[in-house]
Write a sequence for this structure.
């Protein structure tokens, strides 16, 4: 014996309200959608039929219900049983069960969302294909009744009335109804009216502001107003969007302030002119965080809750196409208004760099227009290359600061690769363009640009160097004397990444228990050459004078001070012992200076 499943409507309503829809607000969207679909169906057979979709809020002239009237196709008695009263059955699918293109609905569950706010749904309907006016009453507990209406409707169409569930009245009252009708249905292709108590009605629909207007300043103004109203900012620029395969048109609004790249944008998506969502991050590629988008699409699919886009190949290719249109806008800007591009780069530095990492055209724009910090000042790489055919870069901001003064004085140009994406971009520029030579410059490598001393000077300096080394040994730092420009720089602290690693290992070893200290010791060959170095500059008059001092105590003190100063000016992190040395040497210097002046 074949039996049919029974459906527990209470369970289904609970499922919808707590798991499918995010808010009871959606009931109005589903009502509007049914009215629009019924109107579309009627227009298909009667193109000249008069159209009306009108909402009467709860409380209007003491009305105990919310009502929505349409002059759509209506339903026959048989259709009421098979469509309205059967969960999951829809007139909007074809014989094979596919969603019919012209309709918004497809799942056959939308009307149930009314049970989120109502205990009873009344439908008075007369089919345009003939037959009497029928009255259907559906209850949240799963019962329904159907009878002939006492009074025939004058014209075909449907009136759906909701009897509010206690506590849910506010969703059906005037203010909510207007707000929700404009929110979901503001761009619908048919006029949607909300009735006033005095018998008049207000229109809540208007055409999409980006459609059918000449590209002039009035349109820009209008779209700017739209952006301000829905996204909260006046756009830096507006980009028209079109993806024919998705039946998509719309606009991207470029943010006039920098956006957090980790925060993906909230875009507005209409499907067949009904709002699907005003907060989807899924429409643009991740890198496009400098734009907010409003689009209407006829071919993209909704999820069953109609609150998100269904992730399929079409959505994927649409996302790529939209990304391409944003990128083309950038390229166009570089040709038509380079100063605007410059402004844009200033605002959206990170977004553009992220884009350039996987897009060669943008990479070219970045190379040509985007300023980088260099030892010659901020400038685009294209300009930097005019005087420095090899682009040398530091990997960190600290390294850049360490070597900037020395490199500049040597005539070596260095680009600061320490900022977000900068090193990756520089490397990618080198990889994708065989004509551009890019190479990293480690701080240790700077030593090759420092001149060694003449033999006789080195001999003279030997004792001084020994005292300096002894002073710095406790700090796990080496000392060297070299000659370099600028003469105003007495000492340079150089630590390459390897040295930093060894130093950390050593620190851990000092504080670890004996067993671990032993293990760490075995890892660390304690190679003296990978210790950081304080390079004293023989070209500096100060260093020459210090080298001439005879009091080893004073030499130690001065070396410690130079060490502290070099650490600070290179923005190196200070360990506890560095701070202690810095404090002690500073105070003792003051003490000596004060004592010296007392003696006078
Ligand atoms: N105002 C109306 N006029 C005529 N028919 C209607 C109306 N409202 C509902 N119907 C009929 O009832 C059926 C079920 O409606 P329901 O809103 O539950 O689902 P749907 O619109 O088909 O799909 P979805 O779940 O995607 O909204 C519709 O397919 C339609 O045939």
């Amino acid at each position: 014996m074949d039996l049919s499943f029974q459906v527990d409507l209470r369970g289904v309503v609970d499922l919808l309200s707590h798991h499918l829809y995010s808010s009871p607000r959606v009931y109005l969207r589903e009502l509007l959608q049914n009215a629009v679909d019924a109107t579309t169906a009627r227009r298909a057979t009667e193109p000249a039929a008069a159209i009306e979709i009108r909402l009467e809020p709860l409380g209007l002239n003491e009305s105990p219900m919310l009502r929505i009237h349409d002059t759509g196709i209506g339903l026959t008695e048989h259709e009421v049983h098979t469509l309205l009263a059967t969960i999951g059955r829809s007139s909007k699918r074809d014989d094979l069960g596919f969603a019919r293109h012209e309709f918004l609905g497809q799942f056959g569950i939308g009307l149930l969302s009314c049970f989120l706010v109502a205990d009873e749904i009344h439908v008075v309907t007369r089919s345009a294909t003939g037959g009497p006016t029928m009255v259907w009453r559906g209850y949240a507990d799963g019962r329904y009744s159907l009878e002939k209406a006492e009074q025939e409707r004058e014209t075909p169409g449907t009136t759906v009335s909701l009897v509010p569930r206690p506590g849910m009245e506010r969703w059906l009252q005037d203010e909510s109804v207007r707000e929700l009708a404009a929110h979901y249905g503001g761009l619908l292709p048919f006029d949607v009216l909300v009735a006033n108590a005095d018998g008049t009605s207000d229109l809540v629909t208007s055409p999409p502001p980006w459609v059918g207007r000449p590209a002039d300043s009035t349109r820009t103004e209008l779209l700017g107003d739209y952006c301000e109203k829905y996204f909260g900012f006046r756009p830096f620029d507006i980009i028209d969007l079109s993806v024919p395969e998705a039946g998509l048109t719309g606009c991207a609004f470029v943010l006039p302030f920098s956006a957090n790249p980790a925060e993906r944008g909230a875009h507005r998506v209409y499907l067949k002119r009904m709002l699907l969502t005003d907060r989807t991050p899924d429409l643009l590629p991740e890198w496009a965080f400098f734009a907010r988008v409003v689009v209407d699409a006829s071919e993209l699919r909704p999820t069953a809750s109609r609150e998100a886009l269904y992730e399929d190949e079409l959505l994927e290719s649409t996302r790529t196409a939209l990304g391409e249109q944003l990128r083309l806008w950038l390229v166009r800007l570089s040709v038509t208004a380079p100063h605007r591009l410059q402004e844009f780069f200033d605002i959206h530095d990170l977004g553009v760099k992220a884009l350039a990492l996987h897009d060669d055209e943008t990479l070219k724009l970045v190379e040509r227009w985007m300023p980088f910090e260099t030892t010659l000042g901020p400038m685009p790489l294209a300009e930097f290359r005019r005087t420095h055919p090899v682009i040398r870069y530091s990997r960190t901001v600290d390294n850049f600061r360490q070597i900037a003064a020395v490199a500049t004085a040597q005539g070596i140009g260095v680009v600061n690769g320490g900022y977000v994406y900068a090193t990756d971009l520089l490397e990618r520029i080198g990889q994708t363009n065989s004509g551009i030579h890019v190479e990293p410059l480690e701080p240790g490598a700077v030593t090759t640009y420092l001149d060694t001393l003449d033999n006789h000077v080195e001999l003279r300096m030997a004792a001084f160097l020994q005292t300096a080394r002894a002073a710095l040994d406790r700090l796990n730092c080496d000392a060297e004397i070299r000659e370099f420009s600028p003469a105003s720089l007495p000492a340079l602290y150089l630590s390459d990444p390897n040295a930093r690693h060894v130093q950390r290992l050593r620190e851990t070893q000092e504080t670890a228990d004996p067993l671990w200290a032993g293990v760490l010791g075995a890892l660390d060959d304690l190679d003296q050459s990978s210790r950081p170095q304080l390079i004293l500059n023989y070209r500096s008059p100060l260093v020459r004078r210090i080298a001439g001092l005879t009091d080893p105590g004073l030499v130690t003190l001065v070396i410690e001070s130079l060490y502290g100063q070099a650490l600070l000016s290179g923005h190196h992190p200070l360990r506890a012992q560095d701070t202690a040395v810095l404090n002690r040497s500073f105070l003792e210097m003051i003490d000596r200076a004060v004592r010296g002046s007392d003696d006078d």
